Amino acid sequence: MGDEVITDNETQTQTQTQNSQIEWSQQSPAFIPNIWGRLYLTKTSICRQKCWKIKTPEYYDLISSEFSLGRAFTCTCVIRKEMINDKILKNISKKHFILKRELSEPLSPTIITDLSYNGTYVNGILIGKDHSCILDNNDVISLSHPSLKIFVFKDLLKNEQDQVPYEISKKYYVSRVLGQGACGIVKLVFDKTKCTKYAMKIIRKSRVTNGQLNNLNDPKKIMNEINIMKSLKHPCVISTEEVIDTCDAVYIVLELMQGGELFDRITSQTHLSEKLTRFLFRQMVLAVKYLHSQGITHRDLKPENVLLESKDDRTLVKITDFGLSKFVGEDSFMKTVCGTLLYLAPEVLGANGQKYYGPEVDVWSLGVIFFVCLAGYLPFSSSYKDMSLKDQIVTGRYRISEKRWHGISLQARLLMKSMLTVQPSKRITLDAILNHPWMQDEEVIISVDKLLSNATQMKSFSELTLSTDSDQDENSNSAKLNVNVVATGKRVLSDSSNSFEPIPKKLKLVATEGKDNSDSTNSYYSEE
Question: Residue 516 class from Cβ within 10 Å (0-12 exposed, 13-18 middle, 19+ buried)?
């Protein structure tokens, strides 16, 4: 093939040219169009014959959010007989393909949709009628036959492709950063063949420094998280699409949750109603119960690690971040002091790396989350100066603001108290939480069961569809690509408070803000 692959330097030089060579994009001299991409015409194609005739420009500027090509006059680029080889022209449809790009979304990909029965190919692979895929820099577009290479696409908007290994960029279009923290960075990515969005967690492998290994990015810890995530199958637990292990980093591709974190939902509303809390909390308890049934204790439950599928109130909840989780068998016990301090159970702090503790620690963390959902502030805080944070937790002395708890039912208070019980043996169990009087709302139970059932069915159908497509691809000379639309979302990782643990996001503290600072109705509860 005699196609030209345009270099970045050549493209940047040409981008600055104000005199556009395209008929449909001619503007007044005072206006410089925002060009996000270009379609460069190939010089030669099959049998080294010229595809394009001499009057055709060297490239087509891509300016609008949509660009269509075909013989119809309604197309952005109308292909006429004086432009292209006659043998190729007869195989071009009235509307052959269309390019779309969401210009309002930073680093969004270019999506090409095949509208022709004669076929549109990207890098020799057939897209398929009414199917789509994502275009990447220097991709080659062919019409009607893979050898009829008509265009070379050049992406003029910055993307993150050059910052990941080839095995990643080959399958995924890497977009903007969603968040980052001590453990790594999370980026929005698109599957190039399915056009679906995912969150890709990038964890850099630690290197030995001064003879010591960074605990946070210890390869063993990374693989522990991966093994846990890959083993889990539950609608309320984040699913792992793929894990790619390289020499320098591990890339974990996760489903993307557009509703964001539970933490953000609470802070945006100050606190949640009992009805909404009951709906979301039931899912959290079911998720943790499933983890425990698999011999897994999360050990880092907090609102930042609870993700929501949508912006709606009645939405699916998913537990994420298993970096501190541990499989617990008959001969395995936990004694490591880990997790986020504000949500840690007393027995974890009392273990000091010597004593053992069990999965009851997750119930305590659920109790803190429950408290925060209803009241909108943390039960324990280092801002309460009369007692250290550790002593508050170890003694179970949480602060109650009657102003914040006014109107919250007695049953909700009793459930919170039963979860924030210092002695693990006396702490309420997960089954008892589900059977607690406060949780007995038939409408909520039916709604949650229906939501989880639908999620399970959708997941099973998706896996079946992907499996079928994969089998077809293996027996086909050209792979057909599917289109799926998935909503966006963000996943923010916490920063690091020290070399080991992340800092929890800050909630308003009753004892340290505004009128509540001197509120005589503030009181402590202690089991003593």
Answer: middle
Lowest mean pLDDT among 121-125, 233-237, 305-309, 488-492: 488-492
CA dihedral sign, ordered 409, 413, 414, 419: positive
Catalytic residue (one of 61, 136, 300, 362): 300
pTM of the predicted structure, to 2 decimals = 0.71
The verdict on whether 441 is a catalytic residue reads: no
**Exposure of 403 in the CB half-sphere (CA atoms within 13 A):** 14
The pLDDT-based confidence of 351 (bands split at 50, 70, 90) is low
- The token duo for 320 is 């994420």
Residue 47 in domain: yes
Is the pLDDT assigned to residue 47 strictly greater than 60? no
> What is the DSSP annotation of 310-325?
SSSSS--EEE---TT-
Strands 306-308 and 260-261: antiparallel
C-alpha–C-alpha distance, residues 306 and 301, integer Å: 8
Sign (positive or negative) of CA dihedral 166, 168, 173, 179 = negative
**How many angstroms separate the first and last alpha carbons of the chain?**
82
- 51 and 79: one domain? yes
CA distance 493 to 304: 8
Is the Cβ–Cβ distance between 482 and 113 less than 8 Å?
no
- 1-15, 53-67, 89-103, 345-359, range with the lowest pLDDT: 1-15
Asked if 152 and 20 sit in the same domain, the reply is yes
382 and 410 co-located in one domain = yes
Q: What is the DSSP string of 146-205?
A: TT-EEEEEEE-S--SGGGS-HHHHTTEEEEEEEEE-SS-EEEEEEETTT--EEEEEEEEP
For residue 216, the domain's CATH number is 3.30.200.20
Adjacent-strand bridge partners of 154 = 38
Phi, psi of 320 (to 5 degrees): -140, 180
- State which of 237, 256, 275 marks the end of a domain: 256
Last-in-domain residue among 228, 256, 284: 256
Which residues have C-beta within 8 Å of that of residue 102, sequence separation ≥ 6?
A: 65, 108
3-state SS track over 51-83: CECCCCCCEEEECCCEEEEECCCCCCEECCCCC
